[in-house]
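Quick one, probably user error.
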């Protein structure tokens, strides 16, 4: 969009007005040194995530903001990807101009005209009052008007322009200010330049991936572990996904889930280890000694031991899984304690206290729910009556029995 509300024909990234102002939140609470480091990591994450889709971009670090420039053909895909990059609280496609009142007026009028045209088209002509608001934020304070003064000034300019447009566009409508719920919103942010926008799009928040180390995630085709993965990525962790494969169908679903999660952490990798035979042995051995109700306990303990080996090999700092307290037999407090016993790595369980509906809602938001629920794949080894209150002493006795049996 140019200052007259028309589409810009120049395709060059450097010269175009296809810019997006990007805002962060928690990063701004850090010390100056840490904030600068986080900003650089976020800048790199944006560039590399877009590069994954062959999108050429330029990212500039401003004062508490980042400015992304892409060509117009990649604007929609870039907006889609920005929604998935941790550390970003919100962003807005914007027009950039000098800190000059005339330029700010012209660019604001252009943005307003574009929004008014869309509003009229969406409402098939307007014969009622159209409402608007202008909100200014001075990120840097060198401009000679304060935020409220500039908002009022630009609001008056837009009202004056609307009076001229009424006859030209044959509008039977009035224009009034509504600061709470306007039909058209004009935002202005003043830094070293002025940035004018009409939409504020929410990001995922959190802190940039790569600021908190690397974790080994046990990833299945279910609902929970993808959400647990996302929450750790959102808290700045690079993820290595380990899928313990028990069926081809389950693996294919997990692979699709990984492809979704990879947009949130472009560095993430998926490792697959066949697990069906190992689980079959666990099942057979416990059935042979009449302890089949402990299958889930020994399955989970074995999974964690495998995860621990990969975590050590890949220099991860913790193991992550999708445990949710009380959801299934292996996730009672006693069973979680028994299953975790003997594992030297920290085991992070970001879903531990969440309601199932909360987990489902997040899965829907991040795009994994439909894949996870596309076809239920039941585990062949789940016993009819799994134990819910295992204790360490009993587990140690069973381990001795299994050791004697296999000699």
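Nope, works fine. Designed sequence:
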């Amino acid at each position: 969009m140019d200052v007259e509300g028309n589409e810009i024909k120049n395709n060059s990234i450097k010269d175009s007005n296809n810019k997006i102002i990007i805002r962060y939140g928690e990063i701004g609470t850090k010390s100056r040194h840490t904030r600068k480091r986080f900003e650089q990591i976020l800048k790199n994450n944006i560039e590399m995530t877009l590069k994954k889709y062959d999108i050429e971009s330029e990212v500039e670090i401003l004062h508490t903001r980042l400015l992304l420039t892409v060509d117009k053909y990649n604007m929609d895909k870039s907006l889609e990807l920005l929604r998935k990059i941790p550390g970003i609280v919100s962003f807005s496609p914007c027009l950039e101009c000098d800190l000059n009142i005339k330029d700010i007026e012209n660019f604001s009028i252009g943005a307003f005209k574009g929004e008014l045209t869309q509003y009229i088209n969406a409402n098939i002509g307007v014969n009622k009052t159209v409402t608007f608001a202008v909100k200014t934020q001075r990120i840097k304070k060198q401009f000679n008007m304060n935020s409220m003064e500039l908002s009022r000034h630009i609001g008056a300019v837009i009202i004056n322009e609307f009076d001229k447009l009424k006859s030209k566009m044959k509008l039977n409508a009035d224009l009034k200010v509504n600061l709470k719920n306007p039909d058209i919103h004009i935002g202005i942010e003043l830094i070293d330049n002025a940035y004018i926008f009409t939409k504020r799009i929410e990001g995922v928040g959190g802190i940039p991936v790569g600021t908190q180390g690397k974790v080994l995630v046990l990833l299945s085709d279910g609902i929970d572990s993808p959400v647990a993965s996302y929450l750790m990525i959102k808290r700045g962790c690079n993820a290595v996904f380990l899928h313990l494969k028990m069926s081809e169908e389950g693996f294919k679903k997990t692979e699709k889930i990984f492809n979704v999660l990879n947009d949130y952490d472009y560095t993430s990798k998926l490792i697959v280890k066949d697990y069906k035979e190992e689980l079959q042995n666990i099942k057979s051995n416990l059935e042979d000694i009449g302890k089949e109700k402990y299958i889930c306990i020994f399955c989970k303990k074995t999974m964690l031991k495998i995860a621990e080996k990969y975590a050590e090999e890949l220099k991860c700092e913790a193991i992550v899984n999708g445990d949710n307290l009380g959801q299934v037999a292996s996730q009672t407090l006693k069973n979680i304690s028994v299953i975790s016993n003997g594992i030297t790595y920290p085991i992070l369980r970001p879903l531990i206290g969440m309601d199932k509906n909360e987990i489902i809602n997040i899965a829907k938001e991040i795009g994994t729910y439909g894949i996870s629920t596309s076809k239920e794949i039941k585990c062949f080894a789940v016993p009819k009556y799994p134990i819910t209150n295992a204790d360490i002493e009993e587990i140690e006795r069973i381990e001795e029995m299994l050791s004697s049996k296999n000699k």
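The two ends are 76 Å apart (CA to CA).
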